[in-house]
Amino acid sequence: MSSPAMQYSRYSETPKAHQIDSLRQARIEGFISQDQWKGINLQSLLYKKHPNRVAIEVYSVPDLQRPSFEAATANEFNPTAVGAQFGPAWSTHWFRITIEIPDYKDKLEFHWDSNSEGMIWTEDGEPIHGLTGGHFQDRRVEFIIPRSWQGKKTFFVEASMNGMFGCAQCLDLSIGGPHHPANDIIQPPKADRQFLLETAELVEADQDAWALYWDFLVIADAARTLSSNSWEAQKCLGLANEIMNAFQRDDRSSISTCRLLAERLLKEVPVERKQSTIVSAIGHCHIDTAWLWPFGETKSKVARSWATQVDLMDRYPEHRFAASQAQQYKWLRADYPSIYENVKRKIKSGQFIPIGGSWVENDTNFPSGESLCRQLIYGQRFFQKEFGITCKVFWLPDTFGYASQLPQLLRLAGMPYFFTQKMSWNNINKFPNSTFNWVGLDNTQVLTHMAPTETYNAQVNAEELQKSVSNHGNLAEDNHSLLLYGNGDGGGGPLAAMLERLDRFQKLSDTVGAIPRVGIINHVDEFFEGIQKRTQGGTTLVTWHGELYLEFHRGTYTSQARTKLNNRRAEIMLRELEYLTSMALFTKGHDYPKDTLDSMWEDVLLCQFHDVLPGSCIEMVYEDTTVIYEEVMKKGRSIREEALAALSADADGLSLLNTLSWPRSEIIKLDDVSRFSNAQNDNEARGFVAVGSDGLGTTDLAEVTYTPVTVYEENGTFILQNDQLRVCIFGGEIVSMIDQGLSRELLPQGVSGNRMVLFDDQPLYWDAWDVEIHHLEKYQYVKPGKVTIVDKGPLRASVKVEQQISESSWITSIISLDAVLDGPSYTEGFNDALSQLQVECECEWREDRKFLKVEFAWDLCNTSADYETQFGIIRRPTHSNTTWDSARFEVVCHKFANVDEFGYGVAILNDSKYGFSTHGRTQRLSLLRSPKAPDAHADMGRQRFKYAILPHRGMLNQSAVVRAGFNFNSPLQVVPRCAKLPAISMDGAPNVVLETIKRSEDGTDLVMRAYEAYGGAANATLNVGLNLKSAFKANLLEEDIESVEVRSTSTGSALSLCFKAFEVVTIRACVGEF
Predict the structure, then answer these.
(1) Over pLDDT 90: what percentage of the chain?
(2) For residue 607, what are the CA distances in angstroms to 328, 531, 568, 612, 1036?
(3) What angle do CA 18, 24, 29 make, to 5 degrees?
(4) How many CB atoms lie within 10 A of CB 383?
C-alpha cells in the first residue's frame, strides 16, 4: 500500500491553469526595470542615497588644451552643480569634489555622470578610476569609496567632453531614431556640443540586493534566450516566477529567501558533476588608437580603461584581461606612470595579459611588406623589453581584411596563432570557418580562431553563450570557442556586472544543460594550445588558403588619398635612409641614427592603425597625421643629408643614386643640363637627361644613348611614338596603343583607354568605409578635354589633357612617353621591357559621394588578374561565376596590377593607389572618393598622383613588372658627389628582390631582407662589397635560425641562398673592419 504522502487525491481542490509564458516574461522585465515600477521592484533596494554630501567646483581648461594634474589643479576653481552644461566638444574640465563620508554598512559609491568620459584623481595626483557617462551599455558611473577614506574628503574628476564614441551622437534618441544624423556616431563631430552634468551623488549599495539582482538577471536571461519549448527554459522561467512571488520589498529577509530559491540553479556543484568548459572567457577592451576621436584622446581612454581593470582585478582575483598594442602601453608609460606600474604588477601576477605582438592593431591591406615586419618587430621587442614576454597570438579583431603573407611573417615573428572576428562582417558570403588553419601565400600556416559570437565586445549573456556553439563553423573538428567580453572600440573594458554574470553562468551551465559551459581562461595562449593538442597538432583542422578577403569596407582602399600617399612616401624614405645610414656606418664609421629612425618608424606604424590608414577616421585624426608625416619627412631629410655628407667624395659635382639592387636607365629632370650633350631643354637651363646605373649604390652622373621619341598632331589626334610603342590620344583618351615590334594593337576594336569614370557612391551605411557592388550600375564618363603638346622630345614627349569633371572639379593629366634608352636595363633575366606610358595627374576634387576611377580595356583573353601584394603576387578571378567571385568587385593592389595571356600582358603601375578592379578585359584603377562621414571634408581640394601603363611580352612571370613597380616608386636620384658605395646585389635569380638593408636592432650587424617575388623556388647569390665575418639566416626578430656560409670574393663576400616560392629571408651578418 502506498504511503499517505504518495496518495493521489480523489477530489480536485483548486483549479490549475497553464502558465502564460509571454506574461511571465513581461513580468520579469517589470521586476528589474528602471521604469514605472522602479519604486517598488527590486531596483528600489539596490541603492540608498546620501543627499547633500557632495560639493562641486570646476576649472574649465581653455583652447582644447590637456594640462597635467599639477597644471590644472593650480588654477582657480568655481562652484558648479548638477544640471550645468559643459563644452565644447573635446574640451577638458577639471572638477574638485568634496564629499562628507557618512557611516555606512555596505559599499559606499560616488556616482558621477557628465554624459562624457572622465578620470578620478586623488588629491595627491594619482589617477585611479575611469568613468563613462550616458545611458548606453558602456555606462560606468560608479566609483567605490575606499574604506580608508573618512570624514571630509577631496578628490578630482578630469572630464573630457566626448562620449565613448566621440562627439557626434546626441543623447536624445527620440530625435529620428538611432540612425538619424543627429544621433549617428559616424557623423562628423558636433563642435559646439554641450554635455550635461546629470549626476554627482553619494550612494550606499545594498550588496545582498545586488547579489539577488545578478542571480535573477542571469536566470531570467536564460529563460528569455533558450527555446521556449525546452524544459530548460521552463525551469528557468518557473524559478524566476517563484523568486518574484517570494520577494517582499518591505521585508529584507525575503532577499535571503529569494537567493535560496536561486541556488537551485546557481549553486556550486561538486567537481565531478561540472560540465567540461567549451567557452573560454577572457576580458578585453578594444581601444581604437584613433577613430571617432584623435590620438590625444586615445591616451586618456587607455588610462581610464586600464586603471579600471586593475581595480576590478583587485576586487575579482579571477579576472583576466588581455590588451594589445605596444603603442598604447608606451603612451601609458609616458603619461600615466603610476597606472603603468600597476599594470606591470598585474602582468607579473598573470591577471593583465599583453597580447598581439604588434605596435598597433594595424591595417594589413596597405602597409608594405617591410611595414608589416616592423609592426611585429617593434611590438614584440617592446613586450620583450618591458615585460619579458614574446606574444604567441597575433590579435587583430577589427581589421578590414588580412593579407596573404601574414601567416609567414607571423611565424617568423614567433606567433603561430591568430585571432580575429572581422570576417563575420562579410555582407555577401558567410565565412564558413571558426577554427582552422590559415595557409598563406608561401604555404605557411597559422592556427586561427574567429569567435563564433562575432564580436570582441561581448556582454556575457545567454544569447552569446549559445551562439558560441550554434554559430561555430567547425564543431566537428573542435567545439571550443573564445568569448571576448568587455566594452570596446572606444575603450571601457569589462564591467563588474559582466564578472558577476560570468560567475553565475558558470554555475548555471552545470545545472541547465542548454547553456554551454563557460569558464575564465588564464591566458589566450592556453586556449590555442588546447586546440592544437585536441586536433593532433592542428592536422585535423580544415584549411583556408590565401588572403582573408573581407567582403565589406572596400571603399577604404581609396578613402583619404593623401594619407595613403604619405604612407607610401614614408615607407620608401625609411627604406632608403636605412640603406644610406648603414653604408655610412660600415664604410665611414658614421653614427647610425637608431633612435631617430625608431621614432620615425613608430610614427609611421602608428598611422597604419586599422582606422587611420584605411581612411575611416574623423578629420581631426588626419590633421594629426599630416603633422606626423611632415615631421617624419623633416627628420628624414636631415638624416639623408648627414648620411650623404658622411659618404661624400672629396671632389665637387653630382652622383646618381640607385636605391634598388638592379641596373636601370631612366630619364631624370635637372635644373641645369647645360653640360650634357644630349639633353632635352624645356625651360632655359632646365631639362631632361638620360642616365644609367649599374645597380645599388652611387655612380657618376653620365648620359646614356637613346633612340628618340616624337609627338605630333593629326586631325585632332595626338600621336606619341618611339621604336617600341605608338600611342594615339584623342580628348585625353587612348584610342590606339600599338606594340611596334609586333604590330599588335593592344586595345579592343572601338574601345578606348585612360577614360575617367565618375561613379555614384552611396553605400548602405558606412560612408567612408564602403563601396557597394551597385555603384557599378550608375556612372558617367568624364567628357574628353582639351589636349596640347607639352614636351616635344627627343627624350620625353608629353601632352597635357584638361578635363572638367563637374562644375566644381577638374583634372589635368600629363601623358608622357620616353625615348628608348640604350643604357643598363632592369630586365636582366626577363624578357626585354617595352616603354611605359606615364600619366601624371593634378586634380581639384570637390564632389559629394562620387567615386573617380580611370578605366582601360585590353585585347587580352584572361579569367584572372595578378596584383602585387606584400612580398608577392596574388591572383584573383576576373569573372563572376560564383558569389565569392563577384564579391571581389573591388580589390587591393600595391604597386601594380597585371592582366596577361600566353605571350603578352599589360600592367598598370601606380605611386599611391590601392583600389583596383578587373572585370573581364576591363581594368579600373580607383583614384578618389568623396564620403562625408566621419570626415565631412575627406579628400577635398588639390590631389596629385600618377600611374603608368606597361605592356610586356610574355606573361607576368617572364617580365620585369615587379622591378618596374619599384622603379616607378623609387626613381633614380641626383645627390652630391659620393664615394663609391659597396656593391650589394642579388644575382642568379631575377625573381628574388632585395628589399631591406639596415643595421641590426641590437648591436652593429648588417641585416638584409629579401623575398621571392613570383611564386617559384630560386637559388641566388647575395654579393656584398663588405668583409663579412659570419652570417646567419634569422627570423624577423633577428634571432638566428641557421648559419650561412660566407665566401670571400675579390669585391667582398658572397652568400648562397635558397628561396622557396614567396619566401621571405632575413640575413644577419657580422661586418669586419671597414
Answers:
(1) 91
(2) 13, 34, 12, 6, 21
(3) 175
(4) 22
Share of the chain above pLDDT 70, in %: 98
Residues linked to residue 987 through DSSP beta bridges, in sequence order: 1021
- Per the DSSP assignment, residues forming a β-bridge with 719 are 712, 728
The mean of the pLDDT values for the chain is 96
Report whether pLDDT(2) > 80: no
Domain boundaries, the chain: 41-205, 209-267, 274-552, 553-647, 749-970, 982-1074
Looking at the DSSP assignment, which residues form a beta bridge with residue 840?
814, 946
What pLDDT sits at residue 856?
Answer: 99
Higher model confidence: residue 877 or residue 268? Answer: 877
Pairing between strand 117-122 and 107-113? unpaired
User: What is the model's pLDDT at position 272?
Assistant: 76
Query: What gap in Å lies between CA 44 and CA 458, rounded to an integer?
Result: 28
Q: C-alpha grid cell for residue 849? A: 559621394
**In contact, 737 and 729? CB cutoff 8 Å:** no
Cell output for 586: 660600415
Q: Determine whether 398 is an active site residue.
A: yes
* CATH no. of 553-647: 1.20.1270.50
Residue bearing cell 584610342: 735
Distance CA 51, CA 498 (A): 29
Can you give the pLDDT at residue 304? 98
pLDDT for 1051 beyond 70: yes
Residues 6+ apart with CB under 8 A from 769: 400, 552, 553, 555, 556, 559, 614, 616, 763
Which region, left, alpha or beta, applies to residue 536 given φ > 0 means left and ψ of -120 to 50 means alpha?
Answer: left
Which whole number is the average pLDDT over 918-929?
98
Range name among 35-39, 127-131, 767-771 with the lowest pLDDT average: 35-39
Mean pLDDT of 741-745: 98
Please tell us whether the domain made up of 41-205 is placed in CATH 2.60.120.
yes
Mean pLDDT of 989-1008: 98
Say how far apart CA 559 and CA 618 lie, in whole Å: 12
**Backbone region of residue 922 per phi and psi (left: phi > 0; alpha: psi in -120 to 50; beta: other values):** beta
Hey, is 533 helix, strand or coil? helix
**Architecture of the domain made up of 982-1074:** Sandwich (2.60)
CA distances from 255 to 238, 268, 536, 650 (A): 18, 19, 50, 91
What confidence score (pLDDT) does residue 104 get? Answer: 87
Amino acid residing at 225: T
| CATH fold for the domain made of 749-970 | Beta-galactosidase; Chain A, domain 5 (2.70.98)
Residue 749 pLDDT exceeds 80? yes
Instruction: Retrieve residue 837's grid coordinates.
Output: 606610358
pLDDT recorded at residue 174 = 52
Whether 664 and 826 have beta carbons less than 8 Å apart is answered as: yes
| Beta strand spans in 243-375 (E) | 279-284, 321-323, 352-354
Please tell me the CATH code under which domain 274-552 is placed.
3.20.110.10
Selected catalytic residue, list 113, 221, 288, 398: 398
| CA pair distance 622, 292, nearest whole angstrom | 11
700 pairs with which residues across the strands?
A: 655
Question: Residue 399 pLDDT > 90, yes or no?
Answer: yes
Give the closest residue to 695 by CA, choosing from 1023, 394, 337, 218: 1023
